[in-house]
Amino acid sequence: MLAERAYAKINLTLDVVGRRPDGYHEVDMVMQTIDLSDLIWLERIESGLQVGSPASHIPLDHRNLAYMAAAAFLKHTRVSQGVRIWIEKQIPVAAGLAGGSADAAAVLRGMNRLFGTGLTLDELADIGAAIGSDVPFCVYGGCAVATGRGERIRRLAHPLKAWVVLVHPPVHVSTADVYGAVTPADYAARPLSPRMTEALIDADVDEINHLVRNGLQPITEQLYPEVALLRQRMANVAKVPVHMSGSGPTLYCLTPTQSAGQRLYNAFRGFAKEVYLSRFV
Prior knowledge:
By secondary structure, this protein is of the alpha+beta class.
C-alpha cells in the first residue's frame, strides 16, 4: 500500500479565447498548485477496481475521476492486477479547485509507482487528457500555462512562495452551465498569461494581484449572485483583491506572508464556514 498527495489548483488567469470544433471552449490559463490536498491510498488487489472514501458527497463508481484514471491506467499498461483506492477528501467538491482531477492525477502517479511501470509524467499526462481537461496539469503540479481545452501544458518555474486564503461558499456551481453561457463577447482579445508569467518570475505579488483575471467570473456571478455578494463582503474586509478560481464558486486572496494570510483567515472565519489557509507548492 502507498499514499499519494492530490494537490488543488487555483487559476491566476483564465481567458476564454474561442470555441473549438469539438464543442469545447479554447482557453488560455495560468494555473498554480497549492498545498490544500486530498490523500489517496492505493493497494494492489487480485483484480478489478474498488474505490472507497469517508466522504459522503462523491461517487465511488465509474463516475469518479479517480476510478476512470485507474481504469485508463490498467488498460494502457495492461497490468493484470487490480487496485483498491481510498480517498481522504480535504479539497471541496465542485469548487473550481480541480479536486476530482487532482485525485485522478494522484491515482495515475501512484499506480505508476505501485506497479513499477516506469511511465514518464508526459505519458501519464497523455492518459489523463482523456479523463478531464485539468488532469494533465494536475499530473505535473507546480505552475503552468494551459491552452487548448486546458490539456496542453507549458510548465513554468518561478520563485514566488505566496500564501492563499480561500473561501468556499455553500453554492453548487454547474461548470457546464457557466461555459454554456459564454458568448463571443466574453472572449479575451489578448490573453494575460505572458504578463502573468513575467510577474511570477519577478515574484511581484502586487503585480500578480493586479493581473489576475478570470473570464468566467462575471458569468458565474450573474448566474449565482450569492458569489458576487460574498466576493464584495470579502473585499470590504480584506482591503485586497478577491479572485475566483475556475468556474467557481471558490474565492481567494493572495498574500506575500503567512502572517498576513492568517489575519485574513481569521477575518473570513467571522462570516464563512469553509475557509482555508494554503500556499503555493
